[in-house]
């Protein structure tokens, strides 16, 4: 066997691993009903390929070969364990008896397996932090260490969350399936929530020195694409659009020194046009369906911003209208705050300030730093300096994020 | 697989709401129970008398202490249990989501634990001790 053949197979397997191991893992999880067994089976299958393919040649359908090899390796593992633990033999038999492995290589059933896995990982019966960790681990294939780093927690803590979630899936027998049409809206909402949470953790980073953790946003967008490919519901399109449109401003959102730059001051030539075009097309498709919800509306707002060449030329009345619809679809004081800011842009700071003050009087946003910094900003524009100062100071007390703190301090200095 | 469904309800809810409402609710619940029975999903269950009828036993300082009332003082109290035969967790959730009782109070669904191995081991230990 020549070195070059081995090298060729190795390179090919590298590509296959990067592109296909997530799908192969998802199918093996369904076939084996066990996350850890499937993980080992994926590695065993690739190791077997490295040994066999240079000798026997590449199989016609490499993915199907890897899945079926992984499945047999797992059954072997269980049989070996059965020498010490008789119950493993029963599991091995059950897996052997299970039909469906013949279809293991077909594209359709493979995409379906990934989707089933997403629904299992985001099951509402699992703890919310477990859902996020498990999805990143099992669907995106991130390592425990990578996830722990992204969420600023320790690997053992994260590993524990994953183990707990996996144990519950096994012991409560949470199945691998796409929910029925009747359950779909609610279950899908839980999935989209996980995806958006991952995105925001990457985009807004709730704490720490860096404002953006690009890797997580990228994973969330990949997840969004996976969902769009297999379940193109309007809100799925809406969420992917929303993420793409926000992501398109990534480079413009922070200065070289890591300072936060507000939308109105961003250099719009830095916005990623490709992502904007794709995002807008998705929003339009979701809106046409007339079955859209809050993600699509948020994406539509982002699209209006994306279409404006300057902050001043933004179609603010349309943004106000979209926020009004959003406040109806998903009532929240934060949405009302954003609507108030849009009103200020469309009708003037006075009208906006009246709305912000009414919101603050209601009390729900008292501990929300952005409400106070928005108020400060409107007061500043109206020349009400001392009110602006006390609101900036209140906002500063309420945020731990370093770049935001620097931004607020700068604004305070400018008031002097 | 068996799932144990614990139905919680505010004590005296049935007695304090208008009789017609209670009648409608109870009739709905029994109709659904019958449907579960007919399809082989009802593997047992019972309604409970109110928490005021409960006694709680605890082992303290080497002896059993009996106290009046339920173990946990919560707004909603365990009102009944239902043993469900379901394919998997999603199936159990689906069956109990349609149970009209969920409108009266929350259901907690717990998969039944399989103790067969623990029992076998225990039997082995006990026969070793006898020998």
Automatic annotation (TrEMBL), chain A:
Keyword Transcription applies: yes
Keywords for this protein: DNA-directed RNA polymerase, Transcription
Domain RNA polymerase sigma factor 70 region 4 type: 119-169
InterPro entries documented for this protein: DUF6596, RNA_pol_sigma-70_dom, RNA_pol_sigma70_r2, RNA_pol_sigma70_r4_t2, RNA_pol_sigma_r2, RNA_pol_sigma_r3/r4-like, TPR-like_helical_dom_sf, WH-like_DNA-bd_sf
Domain RNA polymerase sigma-70 region, chain residue ranges per copy: 16-83
Superkingdom to which the source organism belongs: Bacteria
Gene Ontology annotations for the cellular component aspect, listed alphabetically: DNA-directed RNA polymerase complex
Organism: Brevifollis gellanilyticus
Name this protein carries in UniProt: DNA-directed RNA polymerase sigma-70 factor
Biological process (GO), any one: DNA-templated transcription initiation
One example GO MF annotation: DNA binding
NCBIfam families cross-referenced by the UniProt entry: sigma70-ECF (TIGR02937)
Domain DUF6596 as annotated: residue spans: 187-286
PANTHER family: BLL6612 PROTEIN (PTHR47756:SF2), BLL6612 PROTEIN-RELATED (PTHR47756)
UniProtKB/TrEMBL annotation, chain B:
Stretches assigned to the YCII-related domain: 1-111
Annotated family: Belongs to the YciI family.
Lineage: Bacteria, Pseudomonadati, Verrucomicrobiota, Verrucomicrobiia, Verrucomicrobiales
Gene3D superfamilies: Dimeric alpha+beta barrel
InterPro entries recorded: Dimeric_a/b-barrel (IPR011008), YCII (IPR005545)
Full protein name: YCII-related domain-containing protein
